[in-house]
Amino acid sequence: MERIVILTGAGVSAESGLGTFRDAGGIWSRYDLAEVATPEGYARNPSLVLDFYNARRRNCRAAAPNAAHKALADLVSERPEDVALVTQNIDDLHERGGAARVIHMHGELLRALCAHCGHRWQWPGDMTMADRCPQCSAAGSVRPDVVWFGEIPYRMEEIGDLLAQATLFVAIGTSGAVYPAAGFVAEARAVGAETVEINLEPSDTAGQFDRHLHGPASEVVPRWVAEVLSSGR
Ligand code: OAD
Q1: Rounded distance, CA 161 to CA 163, Å?
Q2: Per the confidence metrics, is the pTM higher than 0.90?
Q3: Is residue 74 packed enough to be buried (19+ CB in 10 Å), middle (13-18) or exposed (0-12)?
């Protein structure tokens, strides 16, 4: 039986109406990454950062999972022991598409983190500097539970173990521009896994993949999932 590790990026949620980062008109062409997605930016202007994530949280809540999220959820539920779903996305569209046990390596938009005591909890609405941590009551320390540039992504040890056992690695809708996620394909290749890229166009790391399936995720992912399930791999 294959042991499959799937890595998703913003491209999987693009057809749900959530913007990608580096495509033309993407989030990083409209916002300064250093100001809204780093600990230093948050220290300089916390309200600007909270507003950026408040807007993204509202967009996320208004969006619905697409056929790619649903097909991946089907694959995970058919083969719960053999398939791991790792995402760089902070939206909850994999979960709302039906996937259980999603590994959010860059955190989750709908959760809060107390920068003072480390407590984490669900956060469905807007966030302001007046909000207090329910655990330690600190004020001005509530932030989105997302990983900023300069911070260490979540669950890296677990992901490393999954990649070490992978026989098939699939990257979907990610530009391959951000490490450590962009290095997963090399880790999978090093243990002999087959590597597949599903993307609109060749990514920055396209040369490291054995197979390329180009096109919109909502069309290509369901076809690929059907292929895996029917092949009994
Ligand atoms: P990017 O915006 O860098 O890349 C999205 C990729 O998806 C591009 O290669 C697009 O060609 C592709 N794409 C767009 N629409 C698609 C569609 N409908 N179907 C298939 N592919 C499509 O987004 P990520 O690679 O996810 O991190 O970005 C990685 C990280 O950089 C993010 O998690 C975020 C960002 O800065 C942090 O904020 C820490």
Answers
A1: 5
A2: yes
A3: middle
* Phi, psi (deg, nearest 5) at residue 42: -65, -40
For residue 119, indicate whether it is catalytic.
no
Residues composing the chain: 233
State the Cα–Cα distance between residues 174 and 199, nearest whole angstrom: 7
The verdict on the CB of residue 217 being under 6 Å from ligand 1 is yes
Which residue from 6, 7, 21 has its CB within 8 A of the most atoms of ligand 1, so it is best to mutate?
A: 21
Q: Which residue's C-alpha comes closest to atom 16 of ligand 1?
A: 11
Does the Cβ of 10 fall within 6 Å of ligand 1?
yes
Is 37 near ligand 1, meaning CB less than 6 Å away? yes
Q: What is the C-alpha separation between 49 and 67, in angstroms, rounded?
A: 31
- Rounded Cα distance between 220 and 213, Å, is 7
Q: What is the pLDDT of residues 85-117, one digit of tens each?
A: 999 999 999 999 999 999 999 999 999 999 999
Edge-to-edge strand order for the sheet containing 120-122? 120-122, 107-114, 142-146
- Adjacent-strand bridge partners of 142: 114
Query: pLDDT (tens digit, 9 = 90+) per residue, 39-89?
Result: 999 999 999 999 999 999 999 999 999 999 999 999 999 999 999 999 999
State the distance from the centre of ligand 1 to the C-alpha of 23, rounded, in angstroms.
8
Residues 211, 216, 221, CA angle at the centre, nearest 5°? 60
